[in-house]
Structure formats: structure tokens, C-alpha cells
Design a protein that fits this description.
With about 325 residues, the protein is α/β, with parallel strands linked by helices. It is built from ten helices and 17 strands. It is globular, with a radius of gyration of 19 Å. It starts with a strand and ends with a helix. The mean pLDDT is about 95. The structure holds zinc ion (ZN) (2 copies). The site of one zinc ion has 9 residues, from helix 2.
Length: about 325
């Protein structure tokens, strides 16, 4: 059987619409009929060549929602027809010190969906069943897709930023719009910091329960207990440290960031912490997907047809997506407005 896929042949070039043979599941894998695939900023970093080790040619996409249609040898975790999600972490060796201490997100041999493994910008994909998640009921495919990276890695960032009440979110895109809802549900005060003049994102933040929304650098957002930097802009790091109360933490949530400018030790002094968050663990996924329906997290999505993936990436690059961008594939494409 043939399938439609959007393929990266060379970083820096647009994805090419291609017809490929459908992949067959190897041992331990399931084959998934893709219904929706979220478009992540990381996809942009891969397509633009800022993440430099993709397999080529590559099918990007690591926020995949679909149904299991075939199981490889020994794959018994899911039944045919189950709705599953495929996240960024697609495989880890299970043997190293990190894996054995439930930190498979740090495994040096880890392989990532839509980077070293073909992802969900296609009608069908295969995935290691151990790294797939059941999708909570009550989420349509389109709305579930952004939970799988924007939600899940955002949730890991929220966990690692600590439990302080005053939380700053730098950049208000797909991840922040989800994590804002979780943080408000936890009783925190959210300060959403965006580019000057990005009133759309600021308005969305207020709609989702943020205490305050405004431009980066505004003196209203001070004495924060924690801050998560979602935007891939290194100059936001000293900015966020300056806005932090003593003992607070800045978490950098993205996989790529422009260089961080030098800053005076004084803004780190006072037991402030600066850290990154890398990838996700299966525990993060299980916890977050159990929590999301209880909040309940409502994702706002802009949908694009699979063949329009390049357009979706351009919109994300230009900051023109409200909430999260999602590709509709197969049956979901017919159902989408
Ligand atoms: Zn490992
Ligand atoms: Zn992602």
C-alpha cells in the first residue's frame, strides 16, 4: 500500500509531498493510522537545520494521534483500533544508568520521533509500543495532538520549576497555552510575557486564566518564584533571572536556543537556579495525560491539511499561530472545518 507523506530531504529546504510505501511494524512496534499530528517548534529547528542530526530523508512530526492498525511480533500492549499517541521520545536502550533510574529522557542512545525515526507527517507510521501513550477519552484527535509535546514537555518544565505561586511564562505559544491552564488549576498566579505588541497572545493568556499578560521587561512581572522560557531566545534568560525572587528557578524548555548573553553573577545570586528540561520520560506522559482531562486542559488549535505542512511551519515561524498548529490526516482531514 502507498501513503502520502511530507518528507525532509535536505535541511533548509521545504518539505516535499511524496508517495511512499506504508511502513510495516517490526518486532515490538505498532503500525498507526495517523489522524492528526501537531506541529512543534522543534520541527522548525529540524527543517531549518538548527538541530543538525536528523536521519535523511525524514518524515517529521512527534505529536501524533492515530489508531493502531497492525502489531509487530510480540507487540501486545494495544489492541487493534486503540487510539494512541506517539511523542518525541521514540526509543531508549533501557540499559544505561539513566534508563535504569527512570531518566530515559537523558539516555545517550535515545532516538526521537520525527528526528532519528520517521514521524507523523504521513498517513501511517510505526512506533515502539513501549513509548506510545493511550489517548484520554474526551479529546478529539486534533485537540489531543498538542498534548503530546507542547503539553507533555511543558508539564515536565512545570514540575521542575518548583511549586512557587508566582509563575512567569516567556513566550505564549502551544506549550504555554496548555501549561497556563494547568498552573491556574494548581492555584498559581501566571504572568504571561510575550513580544512587545503581541496582543493576540496576551489576550489568549488572559482568557486562559493568567493573572497578568504583557511585554517582556514589564516591571509588573517581578518577584516571580519560577519562570519557564519557551521562546528559543537566549536573551530572555537574563531577563527571566532578573524577574525572579530569591530562591526561584528559571527553566529553559526548548531543545534549541540562541546564545545566552553574558550576565552579572548578581542576578543568579540569592540561590536562584537556571536549568534546562530535556525531552520527556514515560512517567511525565502518564502523569500529564491523566491530569489533562481533570483540569480540564482545552487546547486551541489551528488545523492545516497534511499537504500544507510547509505553510503551517511558516505560520509558526512567523508567530502567527494562536495556540497550537496541527496537521489533519486521513479521516480527521475530512471532518475538520
Ligand atoms: Zn539508556
Ligand atoms: Zn515538540
Amino acid at each position: 500500500m502507498a501513503m502520502q507523506a511530507m518528507v525532509l530531504e535536505k535541511p533548509g529546504e521545504a518539505l516535499r509531498e511524496t508517495v511512499l510505501d506504508e511502513p510495516a511494524p517490526a518486532a515490538g512496534q505498532v503500525a498507526i493510522r495517523v489522524q492528526a499530528c501537531g506541529v512543534c517548534r522543534t520541527d522548525l529547528h529540524i527543517v531549518d537545520g538548527e538541530l543538525s542530526e536528523p536521519k535523511l530523508p525524514l518524515i517529521p512530526g512527534h505529536q501524533v494521534v492515530g489508531t493502531v492498525e497492525e502489531a509487530g511480533e510480540g507487540a501486545e500492549r494495544f489492541a487493534i483500533g486503540d487510539r494512541v499517541g506517539v511523542p518525541w521520545l521514540g526509543w531508549a536502550d533501557g540499559e544505561c544508568a539513566y534508563c535504569r533510574s527512570a531518566r530515559e529522557n537523558l539516555c545517550a542512545r535515545a532516538r526521537f520521533t520525527g528526528y532519528q525515526l520517521d514521524g507523523g507527517y504521513a498517513e501511517r507510521m510505526v512506533a515502539d509500543e513501549r513509548f506510545c501513550f493511550p489517548i484520554p477519552e474526551g479529546y478529539p484527535d486534533l485537540q489531543a495532538a498538542p498534548l503530546l509535546c507542547a503539553g507533555l514537555i511543558g508539564y515536565r518544565s512545570l514540575r521542575l520549576v518548583g511549586e512557587g505561586e508566582r509563575l512567569g511564562l516567556y513566550g505564549f505559544g502551544a506549550s504555554a497555552h496548555i501549561i497556563c491552564q494547568v498552573a491556574v488549576h494548581q492555584g498559581r498566579k501566571v504572568f504571561a510575557l510575550t513580544r512587545e505588541g503581541d496582543t493576540d497572545a496576551q489576550e489568549l493568556a488572559r482568557e486562559l486564566g493568567a493573572e497578568w499578560a504583557g511585554a517582556v521587561g514589564d516591571p509588573e512581572a517581578r518577584e516571580l518564584d519560577g519562570a519557564i522560557v519557551f521562546a528559543p531566545v537566549g536573551s530572555l534568560v537574563p531577563e527571566a533571572l532578573r524577574a525572579l525572587a530569591r530562591g526561584g528557578t528559571v527553566v529553559c524548555a526548548g531543545i534549541h536556543m540562541s546564545d545566552i548573553p553574558a550576565f552579572p553573577y548578581q542576578i543568579l545570586w540569592g540561590e536562584r537556579t537556571l536549568r534546562s528540561v530535556a525531552n520527556l520520560t514515560r512517567r511525565d506522559g502518564e502523569e500529564f495525560l491523566a491530569l489533562a482531562p481533570r483540569v480540564p486542559v482545552r487546547t486551541q488549535v489551528q488545523s492545516y491539511a497534511l499537504a500544507d505542512a510547509n505553510h503551517a511551519l511558516d505560520e509558526l515561524r512567523g508567530g502567527r499561530v494562536r495556540g497550537a498548529a496541527v496537521l489533519t490526516v486521513g479521516a480527521a482531514a475530512q471532518a475538520a472545518p
